[in-house]
Amino acid sequence: MAHINVPEGVPGIRSLVMFRPESGQHLYALAQVLLRGESPLTEAERELIAAYVSSRNECMFCMSSHAAAARYLFKDKKQVVDIVLDDYKSAPINEKLKSLLNIAGKVQINGKKVLPEDVEAARKQGANDREIHDTVLIAATFSMFNRYVDGLASLTPTDPKAYEEMGVRLGEKGYVLPNKS
Amino acid sequence: MAHIKLPEGLPGIRGPMAFRPETSKPLNEFAEVLLRSENSLTRGERELIATYVSSLNDCFFCQNAHGGIAQHYLQCDMDYIDSVKKNFESTDLSDKLKALLSIAGSVQKGGKNVTTAQIEKAKSLGATDIEIHDTVLISAAFCMFNRYVDGLGTWAPQDRNIYIERGPRRAAEGYLNFDLYNNK
Known about the structure:
heterodimer; A: mainly alpha; 0% strand; globular; B: mainly alpha; 66% helix
């Protein structure tokens, strides 16, 4: 049971933003612009970074829902998602994305862990300022969402099918604030 | 030097905010609601939680910028803010606020570190569900802001007194509609 009186039966962050839409509306707006807005990184790549950071933070709800969104968006290449979550270095993804996942992993520990050589390595693989910026902000943002979801012990479904549905919804509709009803 | 090319001379989060206004908009609107809107936790208490979490994350810019604002609202000195960072249990803060700071500290380590016992203690001292929610979200939010500021290697003035001098102005202008390029 959640630590506070959020709507019953509603999973994860949805229950929290229904409890507190005043802050929740801006969190959804942030997720929408960061993960769906214009960016040199594809929506699938951004969801993958989100799932990877959530996995490192051991946030089951965020990891499962964003992995599902990434699978939906990667379409016929969806098998890369689980390989990345297991060991991104061995995954069939380009070297640029691997160097950005390295930066995201450092941000997850603490921002200061990102060293000039991490950024240099990403640049060598062709990453530009926007891609580095977006990677850092996605990793930082999920370091927030993960703590929000788990810090209030919100409902984490265990049925994989529940996440599959969330993945389709996030892939098709993006981040739409749930109604308080 | 920052890891990416940011407008020069802007301290801390102001550089990334100028770099990417599309994400700054929801970030600032979020900060405004979280730290300044009508709430049974005072603005000073919320800024103090933000300062405490930023010090746990060792983010120089955030702990001093928000420490300066907290100091202004709480009408205390820098030593007092530092004593909260170092050991809030030994300060004269209310037991309820101490219970909330303890929850914020657990969130900083990872959300799962928050225990039912911590929540029950906060509730027994009068904390409401909204206050517990907002404490968790402030702590989580600064785990984001701190990483954004340090993960891009942003620049920050090292003289802590600058942040104290600017505290009253930061408190007055809030997080919306301020001039990014005027940071006096």
